[in-house]
Amino acid sequence: MLKLRDVKAYYQTPKAVIQAVDGVTLDVFENEILGIAGESGCGKSTLLKVLYDSVQPPLKIVSGELTAEMKDENGQTVLLGPGEIRNHWWRFISYIPQGSMSVLNPVIKIETQFFDAISKKHNLNNKKEMHERIAAYLKELDLPVEVLNSYAHQLSGGMRQRVLVALGTFLHPQIVLADEPTTALDVVIQKSILLMLMEVQQRMKNSLVIVSHDMGVHYQITNRIAIMYAGKIVEVGPTEQVFNNPKHPYTQMLIQSLPHVGDRGERKGISGRPPSLIDPPKGCRYAARCPFVMDRCRETSPELIEVEPNHFAACYLNEMKGA
Amino acid sequence: MQKMRNILRLNRRLQVGSILILIFLIFGLVLPRFSPYNAIDWNVVPRNLPASKVHIFGTTSLGQDTFWLLTFAIQNSLFIGVIVAFFSTAIGVLAGLTAGYAGGVVDRVLSLLMDVFISVPSLPILILVASLLQGKTSLLTIGIALIVFNWPWPARQVRAIALSMREREFINTARFSGKGTLGIVVYEIFPYIFNWSVANFVNTVLVAISTESALAVIGLSSVQQATLGTMIYWALQYQGILGKKWYWIGSPVVAIVILFIALFLASTGFAEYSAEKRGRQSA
Amino acid sequence: MSDLLLEVKDVTKSFRIGGLVFGTELLALDHVTLSLDKQKPSIMSIVGESGSGKTTLAKLILKLHEPTSGDILLDGKSIYSAEHGLDHLDYLRAVQPIFQNPFETFSARKPVETYLYDTALKLKVAKNKNEARDVIAAALTSVGLDLNVAKGKYAHQFSGGELQRISIARGLIPRPKLIVADEPVSMIDASLRMNIVNLFLQLKEMYKVSFIYITHDLSTAYYMSDFIGVMYRGNLVEYGASDEILTNPQHPYTQLLLDSVPMVGKKWTRDIKAPDVELKEYQATACKFAGRCPFVRDICRETKPPMVTIDGIRQALCYKPVDYEPGRTTVKSETIAAS
Q: Which of B211, B177, B215, B194 is nearest to B271 (CA)?
């Protein structure tokens, strides 16, 4: 559905150039939940903006290809590139942001926001009919219809996020992008929203891309996971495989460091810090913190290679074992 | 050396504003010492002379050299401006910090005072007071009145800043480091208010000078003294506009305008500069 | 002299929200009782979601608010009254905080070390600047940092992890008996989090200091604590040794929390309870969890559940362990019906 080939997207400011997405090759397939995992500053939010075709200065796609395959009303496949994808927001591709209070307009009712977002390009001007359709959809998602008549500040954080999920999926888009959809929400509500997203995806059989720093969230709901580090994808593959058999040292150490309830064994964090995105090192970005680092790693940056069917990792260790 | 280079990197506004202010300071503080006349006395020179090498801006209908009179006027206006600004900012900041940080009854009382003085329109009251004291108003009286009406403005805003700062986590850190209330106010809260106080000071200079000038133009200031406002007053009394006495009436007006522009540029330039400095500090 | 380091005695804290005339009372803490033993340094986690009261409890222990009723004792003396209770200076030397956001913990306008010097000098740990420097250098070393590297720098010149370590070092200077840490690692990246958590464990042994660790993260709470208290809407609903609480919870809410945490290694079961009801739950006169509890019975909605003691140590604010019989407050774990 979405193909990125060696995409580089940088923030170009007068003081410095931030190489937030630095050569990413990634596919988003039909009918899957893809997770993009990484810590703060790795570039995952920028990657999402690129996928959503929401690239504005100082952010610029410097090189690489982004192609989207959209099925139009007649069922024909249309190829879209950057600049064109944005003409099909809400219907082909939608975006659920984090920070729901700053996303919903505080002075208009929720229902009006639905209308605003939806009716512009789709000639659906019959308000009453739209209201019924929206209300029906809310009911499917187990949301009380009264929210339509409320203002954003009258709803709790969890309710607002659910409204955003409804808003983002109402027109049954083929791709849904969610940026940290449950950060800052309580655990119990988080679970209900994540389950809601899963249900919606299963019903519509579309693609859901979730960005989160919480590995537990990825484990629970994604089919495939891509690990991002310092602007690059270092590992990608089916979720169970990546968690059970990680092939990149960063992934390995990250997963090992997570404490579990029921297991008191010692956990260690990773020492050091991720490299600056303004002046990244020339070799592998993880070299400075990697316990298995070799000379080669400091010279050149490894590419993603297939280590198991559909499981890719960017690490020279995998090449050495002859795998 | 680094500091010198930093100063030279000040933004354009601040540079221009500072230079203009410097010119005014020279005009107002240095030049009057060189004046060959006591510029306030009448009839020291022939009246209504046009501009010449001896009298750069000509002379007034009262027999004063316009140019040297202007320097005295600038001096007095600057004095009023700076003294009023200094005291009202000092009192305002102190009151605001106390009210904001201490809270409780102290805050209520101070806030009441602030609200009273802010809601009372100062210019009409000043006009009223000045006309009642017709003839006996001195610059001192006006100065005090201006201070009384001006301190609530910085006080209110400083109070708001202090109130919001009270809840910041580093105040708690300071408490747990053993700092007392006074220490916290001075070392933790004040640095956030400082830049703002400087901008406020400059604005108050503007307000003080303009209010005094406004009173002077309608004859309610101390017209025996030379200020920019009284200069305009006297020029108007002697048909400055109809009589085309451009230097006499024009120079104080132009001076006020340029002074305002200079202060404005310096104030906004400083705000930009300190924001930039902080911006360069972060990340 | 008591053998309890910290005693939170029947503390209630209410706030008035919504204005003087038409506002309502919000019970942020509802008769909470907890204690920490003196003999061995221990780590107690207080877990709960937003609105549970855990942060309010931390603020009360840190003397940033006063309780509406009840008292908090440190070493047998009340921390609030100056005459009969604990001297303020003694209090500051005994209890120190670590806050959630390291960049908010220090003012952006001063070098970070000024706080360290203040703590050393004003809390009478050092007599002059030279002594203070040694004390500070030692504290920084114990958290893995070097004084020379930290000299003269401002908060924004450090990373989050480094700054949090400095915050911890500052708290250690007076050799406190208790450190209250409010979500100290939630703003730190996952891969670096365990470094700080392990540091807490090391410091507990090295300095014999106890911690109260406020968090919503059950995994780190389990990893580092000896005891866990679970809070819900102002009530302490369960308390006990962390091993037992999280592997065999007695309160339905604790069970709900455990089921909701996205853990690696065990997939979720799909049932999830109805959404939040908030204000009504705070004001409920009976069990506040009744509206969402899968095991609720009439008695839960009518009267407040008792604090049931299980095996003498564990506690749960619930009717379920006592088979919904009013009046019973102690139980042995063997007799608890299988849920």
A: B194
Give a yes or no: residue B5 inside a domain.
no
User: Which residue out of C218, C242, C264, C289 would a mutagenesis test of the A interface target, given it has the greatest number of A Cβ atoms within 10 Å?
Assistant: C264
Measured between alpha carbons, how far is A168 from A188 in angstroms, rounded to an integer?
A: 22
CB contact under 8 A, C219 and A261: yes
Domains in chain B, number: 1
Rounded to the nearest angstrom, the minimum Cα separation between B15 and chain C is 25
H or E element at residue B16:
helix B12-25
The alpha carbon of residue C161 is apart from the nearest alpha carbon of chain A, in Å, by 9
CATH of the domain at B78: 1.10.3720.10
Q: Is B182 on the interface with C (CB under 8 A)?
A: no
* The residue to which tokens 């004859």 are assigned: B219
Residue B220 lies in a domain: yes
Q: CB distance from C96 to chain B under 8 Å?
A: yes
Q: Assign residue A78 a region: left if phi > 0, alpha if psi is -120 to 50, beta otherwise?
A: beta
- Residue B225: strand, helix, or coil: coil
Q: Please give, rounded to a whole number of angstroms, the shortest distance from the CA of A228 to a CA of chain C.
A: 13
The 3 state secondary structure assigned to chain A is CEEEEEEEEEEECCCCEEEEEEEEEEEECCCCEEEEECCCCCCHHHHHHHHCCCCCCCEEEEEEEEEEEEECCCCCEEEECCCCHHHHECCCEEEECCCHHHCCCCCCCHHHHHHHHHHCCCCCCCHHHHHHHHHHHHHHCCCCHHHHHCCHHHCCHHHHHHHHHHHHHCCCCCEEEEECCCCCCCHHHHHHHHHHHHHHHHHHCCEEEEEECCHHHHHHHCCEEEEEECCEEEEEEEHHHHHHCCCCHHHHHHHHHCCECCECCCCCCCCCCCCCCCCCCCCCCCHHHCCCCCHHHHHCCCCCEEEECCEEECCHHHHHCCC
pLDDT tens by residue, A99-144: 666 777 888 888 888 877 776 655 556 778 888 888 888 888 878 8
Structure tokens at A280: 């990244």
Nearest to C209 by CA among C35, C34, C19, C38: C38
Of A192, A215, A269, the CB nearest to C264: A215
- Global pTM exceeds 0.90: no
- Residues C123, B174: C-beta atoms closer than 8 Å: no
CB contact under 8 A, C264 and A194: no
Would an 8 Å CB–CB cutoff place A145 in contact with chain C? no
- For residue C170, list chain B residues with Cβ-Cβ distance below 8 A: 173, 177
Q: Which domain holds residue B40?
A: 13-277
Is there a contact between B169 and C62 if contact means CB atoms under 8 Å apart? no
**Assembly ipTM:** 0.84
CB contact under 8 A, A191 and C219: no
| Contacts of B among chains (3+ CB pairs under 8 A) | C
- Residue C48 one-letter amino acid: G
**d(Cα A301, Cα A23) in Å, to the nearest integer?**
11
Q: Is residue B148 part of a domain?
A: yes
Q: What is the mean pLDDT of each run of 10 residues along chain C (339 residues)?
A: 83 78 78 89 91 90 91 88 77 93 90 93 90 93 89 88 93 94 89 91 93 91 92 91 87 88 79 52 72 82 84 83 78 60
Q: Residue C263: its chain A contacts at CB < 8 A?
A: 216, 219-220, 260-261
Q: Is A276 at the interface with chain C, CB within 8 A? A: no
Residue in C106, C223, C207, C125 with CA at minimum distance from that of residue C166: C106
- Edge-to-edge strand ranges of the sheet holding A232-238: A93-96, A175-179, A207-212, A33-37, A224-229, A232-238, A311-313, A305-308
Look at residue B3 and tell me if it is in a domain.
no
Question: A156 and chain C: CB distance < 8 Å anywhere?
Answer: yes
Backbone angles phi, psi at A37, to 5 degrees: -110, 150
